[in-house]
Structure formats: C-alpha cells, structure tokens
Amino acid sequence: MRKNVLILSHSYGSQFLESCNQYSLVFDPQEYETTVVYLSGSPSIDIKNKTLAEHTYFFDIPTKQLSGLKLKAIKKIYTFCKEKKFSIVICHRYKPSYIMLWVAQFYSFAAMIFVMHAPETMLSKARQWLVSHLLKKNMLIAGVSHAIEQDIKKDLPKVPAEQIITLYNIIDSDLFSSHLFTRQGARLKLNLSEQDFIFGNLARLVIDKDQKTLIHAFSQIKNNCPNAKLIIMGNGKLEHELKKQVSDLKLENEIIFTGFIEDGFRFMKAFDVFVLSSISEAFGRVLLEAMIAHTPIIAARSEGIPEVIGDTGVLVDAANPEQLAHEMQKAYHSNSTELSALAEKSFQRIDLFTLPTFKKDFWNLPLMKSLMRSP
After folding, report:
1. Within 13 A of 209's CA, how many CA atoms are on the CB side?
2. Share of the chain above pLDDT 70, in %
3. Which CATH architecture best describes the domain 173-352?
C-alpha cells in the first residue's frame, strides 16, 4: 500500500507552483501517492494541469481565515488529513507550517518538513515561541539556501540545530532550455538591434529587487557604453517611481520597461549580461534561468545569491551603484570570448540544482532514511 504525501502551499504563484512540483517529483509514484493543496486562490484548470502531483485541491480559504489564529483553516486541514491519512507532510511558507504544526498536535504524521522561502521568517517573538514549543523530533525546518538556514537558526536557538537544514530550489534544465527563444528571436520580439549590448533584469518591481540601484548604475556608464541598453522585465508597485527615475535621467530610450511578460525567462538569451540587483534574495531562481541560457551574470552579494552562482558570476555589494556600474562597464568592454567562457562556467554549475541532486540530498536526510527503513 502506498504512503500518502501532502504538499501544502499558501498559494499557487509561479514560485510556489514550481516548489510543489519539485517536491512531488522526489517521491516514487509506485511507493507514494502525492497530493498538493493550495490554501488560497480560486480553482484553476490551468494550475491543476501544471501541478505534477497525482491530486490537486484548491481550498480557496478567504484571507481573513488565514490571519490570526486560523482556527477554521486548522479545523479544515485536520479533517482533510484524517480523511486522507497522510504520512508525510511538506509545507511551503510560514502560514501553512503554522497550520500543520497545530494539526500535528492532534494527528500523528511520520515526517514533516517546513520549507521557508524568505529571510526573517522567524523574526517574530510569537513565531519563535510557537515553533520552539510545537516542533517535534520528526519535523524539520528547511531554508532554501544556507543563508536562510542560518537566519532561522539565529532566531530559533532553542530548536536543535540538526532540525534546521537547507534544501535548495531546483530547475528542470532540459525543460527550460527547450522553451528559450533564440537570441535573434528574443531580440526581434523585444524590438532590439543586434548591435545593442543588452543588460537584462527579470524581477518584480519591488524594494527587495532594488532596480533603483540598477538604474543609477546604468546611468553612470551610459556615456562610456554608447550601445548599451537596459531591459527591465516585470511589474510591481514601484513601476511608476522607477519610470520617473528613468525620465528624470532622460534615459527613456536606453532603459526599457516591458511590463510583466508570462514566462519571461524565455527571453533570457536576448541579454548579453543578466543583472540581479536584489538587496534581499533568499535563493534567486532566476539566476538558474540565466545560467541555463548561457547568459553571464552580475549580481548583488545578497543572502542566497552567492551560493547559487558560486565563482561563476560577478558579485558586487548590494545597494552599491558605483561598484555595480564598474562591473557593468567592464562587461560591456569585454570581448565575446571572455563573456562566453563565464557563461559556460555558470552553465556547468546547473547540475547542483537539478532533480537528481535534490533527490539524493532529500533521501539522505536522516529523517527520510528512517522512513525508508520503516515498513
């Protein structure tokens, strides 16, 4: 008889859909039956088709019920777990983890893993108290990078260190490669000339991504890099502010905002260099997309970013426009051979973030090894 696995996510935003699929694929379908539950978000045929678990449920719980004590949500999930008899539970983000920590006080699971995708998740004293008191020996807290693991350990000193681990995000290299536009095709769709040297940024327009520093850095190099352009792909609450910054600098023709483009990673080959200026980045999955596209990377030295690119890209201090400008100008004046060598080196690093590596790391966890030994 197969063991039932529950993967619980706050929502089905692209990041969490990919995470649910990552953990679904780690389980052998001959031995495990996987179920994904999205706590919020209305039912979607498209999302259901994209979710790789055997079963997908949309609980569509109102925002109010996911705030405060979440008693209705806890009761609903408890009833669901009793009905489905789940053995293993994996939660993404804090709210699903909070709910399952309470459910686990009344229902016994063989193993539980709570995956945290952002820094300072456990900064709250209330969260620290609750997790420290409700966490059991068969539970692990995983950060998506060592930086997040260390951040959690700092805030949860009473939790045994061996129960706080790192489980990296991954990417399907072959699948992503097959969806990429060619350089020429991507540039044609973006109305870019082959003579342009393109710095690309693909991220939400929010404070954490710090496009403000990126725009400032680009403005410093423009006079010395006449064919340079900056493409910013994404949308967000800072869009108006960032466009005003560009207008004030009179760089509307050199800095182009595309807005949100679904599957924007497909345009990655249009860029000569990918730049990620984030001041806070737990992991940076977009870096893997750049690596697959053989696009050289310049990125801020922020949280999980150095772990992802290692020595295969250029790191600069976060929120340092002068340092960023220096490296961007250096890249602009590099020859194609130098840039290609850097891109190839980063492409070889992708193996660290693929499913085979992740499955090996996951099943080597002592907790998961113990389950494999149990009948």
Report:
1. 21
2. 99
3. 3-Layer(aba) Sandwich (3.40)
